[in-house]
Predict the 3D structure of the following.
Amino acid sequence: MKDFMASGSFARGKEEKNANASMVFVGNINQSIDVVMKTSHLFDPFPAAMAYDAAFFDRMHYYLPGWEIPKMRPEFFTNEYGFITDYLAEFLREMRKRSFGDAIERHFKLGSHLNQRDTIAVRKSVSEMLKLLYPHGEFTREEVEEVLRYALEGRRRVKEQLKKIGGMEFYDVHFSYLDNDSFEEHHVSVPEQGSGKLIPEGQGKPGHVYTVSHGDTGMLGVYKLETEVVGGNGKFEVTGVGWDREARENLKTAQNYFKANKKNISGSISIDSSNFLMHVADCQGVGSTTELALCAFVALCGAALHKPLQSQMVVLGNMSIGGTINKVEELANTLQVCFDAGAKKILLPMSSAVDIGTVPADLFAKFQTSFYTSPEDAVFKALGVE
């Protein structure tokens, strides 16, 4: 078994727009599943012309995770009789004329997050799995529920990748089904989504700040700034941005503002006998960013005061050399990236309050949100100092 198998139905052409062709793609992911989930998406191994085509991948019904399938072993082979290929092929062809998709409605209803394509994908997956497992058409409620959960998981795995590729258009990923008898709602998760968040629980180190902004690839991604204070003579050193002139100038803005306004934060901050070492980590490989000045200023202040930020907080927004605050672009998409990365608290510029209406209510409710009006205000609120 390869690392993945994805299947779906695709229109054959304008002359046959009502007919679908079933296709299956089998392949390998290029890194471990934990690394892929943090830095890329599961369709990334496809050719470049396809790898970010959300419309194409939205037609995938199911993504089977090969990494969950046991490797072939001698004891998996049987000594009993089996079907010859010709017979099995004819059986499968004949079974295409039958559908068990209506088995869902006898006992369950699909949740509100499933759109029409999701519903079609899940119904077809349920039908095909039931035909393989119970070709005689006899199955219990528990057996239908087991198959339904597999179908929802496989389609949600597709949808989670679409969310990474296409943003808020594919926001509805919290798949569920409702029991017709008890009216209880059951949510179906994707196991690998919980395989370690970029922003871990617990208190971070002083001078460590997370932010979300656009990389030079145009994609939104998570960045972590790690700042250390060592003995020295007032120098600032930056690593992790390479030779990107705009990124370095943006960080220089933070350094200059820190030098000029450190007394507004605390009279105890002194830079004459210290060096500040800052590393910028592009956690998701979206490229260098020029939107780091505000969070870099917060990081410098936190490091100088030896005080960590609030747990699982993301600092959003940017500032000019004079301290003017810039609002967050694509607020809804940005908050979705924050949520996926594990953030529980968000620090937003007050100027972004006008865009809250563009954020789905259930997404905005996931966070404890604070607003700031100036760089100094951002520092105090990020550090939990009122």
User: Anything to note?
Assistant: The two ends are 56 Å apart (CA to CA). The chain is about 35% helix and 20% strand. The longest strand covers residues 220-231.
